[in-house]
Every structure is written in structure tokens, then in C-alpha cells.
Amino acid sequence: MSGKRSPVIISCAITGAIHTPTLSDALPYTPDDIADQAIEAAEAGAAVLHLHARRPHDGGVSIAPEDFAKFLPRIKASTNAVINLSTGGSLLNTIEERIAPALRFSPEMCSMNMGSMNFSFHPLAGRHEKWKFDWEKDYIANSDGYIFRNTFADISKAATQLSAHDTKFEHECYDVGHLYNLRFCMDSGLFKAPIFIQFVFGILGGIGADVDNLIFMKRTADRLFGDSYRWSVLGAGGAQMRLAATGSQMGGNVRVGLEDSLYISHGTLAQSNAQQVAKVRRIIEELGSRVASPDEAREMLGLKGVSRVSF
């Protein structure tokens, strides 16, 4: 968007649906650990907390609203951060199942994936011989057969049902075609400006984590959406901090968190989500920008406010 340069919104994706407990001892999966790490990330500077749920007994992915209910009230009571619920959830569930938590809790924001794609992380299966839980290795190894389904019908169903909640979307775009999908959906009346786009780089099946691709995606979005959008950058794995630093200097916002990368630097596992938030905040501030507060993020993104959520 044009005008005076805005502060940088830091989003933190706390646990996600890709990484499993064996891959990092820091990955939270119990309700207390998810809440603790979310609160610490907010204290470190995250204005937006992007949240998935996990099965407390073995760390598996959960989209059950009752599992979200175990940590959402505590996070809300302890922070002023914007809560952003995933509608991605498990790659193996229907759109009706995936949007159930957002429909129940009516968050200020939720994610919205803008196209179907191959979505694989199967190379991670070769990193360990012993696994904490029996489900982990097959879940990772079999992802080479996963298709992350987000058809136009799925997108329309989610957008229509959530419109009554006045919930804004983080439109996750994993490739340039997803930007055109979003433009089509806007022209069809599903979404209204201003919108918030999350450029996603480095997922196997999506666009690569190259600065040239970031420039290309941004230029394409400028052409398609003009001044009617804000944007953020998510670099998976080792691209996390590099693309965050670049994106912040291009006028964008940033997303970090253990959902997207388990590392704090090359070869060194992060100790927590807050450690990643603190690092990207330091980079942003040392490069001369300012980090947005939660209320500034609400104003920038046109959110309905925390008083209108249902948790």
C-alpha cells in the first residue's frame, strides 16, 4: 500500500501441521506448551499469533475445536496479540472439518490457502532412525502422495461461512497462480479490499525460496491488487530469516515460527518460537524499521477487535 511507511507486523506460527515432536524438542504440542510459547512470542514482539492445535497425548495434528479450546482463552487472557486460526489444519481433512475451529471461535483472523497443490515434506523422514511416537515417520514419509486441496468450491464455502463472523483472512499464496486465484475470488465478490497476502516460499510443491521470486510475486501482486493489499513473507526452513529481512525492507511484514522453520541459524535448532521472534525483531530494528504493536496491526489490517471473538 502507498503512503508513509508502516511498522512491520511480526506474525509467529507456533506449531503448525508439518513438523513432528521427534524433529525438535522445542516444538510445542500440549495445550500448556502451545499457550506458553504463544505468550512468550507475543512478549518478544509478535503482534499476530498463528495457531494450530495438536493431540496432547502424542503431538499429532488436531483440528478438533475442543483441542483449541484448551489454550485459546489463556492466550487471550495473557496477551493483546491478534489470534489467527489456521483453516489449513491437516492435509487429509475436508474443508468443513478444517474451518470448524474458526466457525466456533470467531477469531479476528484465519488463514485461507488460495489453491490446491502438491505439498510434501517427505525428505524429513530420513533424518531420524528412532521416533518418539509411532505415527510420525509414516506421516512424514507419505507426504509425497499428499495433495493440499483448496478448490474454488472449498475457498467459496469457507469464505461464505466465515463472512458472518467478520473474520479477516491471511491469504496464503504458495505460487504465482494463487495470486490470480485470489484476484478471481475478489472479482467474484468473495473477498473485499483491503486484503492481507502471505507469500509462502520454500515448500516442496510451491515456489522456491529465492529473492527473485519474492520480487516477482510482489510485482505481480502490485499489478493485480494495486493499493488494496498488505503483504507478508514466509520463508520455509533455512530461508526464514533471509527472506524476512529482505521482505521487511521492501515494505512488507514477516512471519516466523516453528511451524515454518525449526532453526534459529544454520544447523542450530531454535529453543523456542520467542527466540525466532526476538531475532527477526532485532534484524528489523537494526535495519531501521519499527515493529508493529498488536493494536497497530489491527488498524493496519482492518480487524474487528478482540472484543468480538468467541473464546
UniProtKB/TrEMBL annotation:
Keywords: Metal-binding, Transferase, Zinc. Coiled coil: none annotated. It comes from the Bacteria. PANTHER family: 3-KETO-5-AMINOHEXANOATE CLEAVAGE ENZYME, 3-KETO-5-AMINOHEXANOATE CLEAVAGE ENZYME-RELATED. Its cofactor is Zn(2+). GO terms for molecular function: 3-keto-5-aminohexanoate cleavage activity; metal ion binding. This is Uncharacterized protein (DUF849 family). It comes from Pusillimonas noertemannii. It holds the Pfam family BKACE. The keyword Transferase applies.
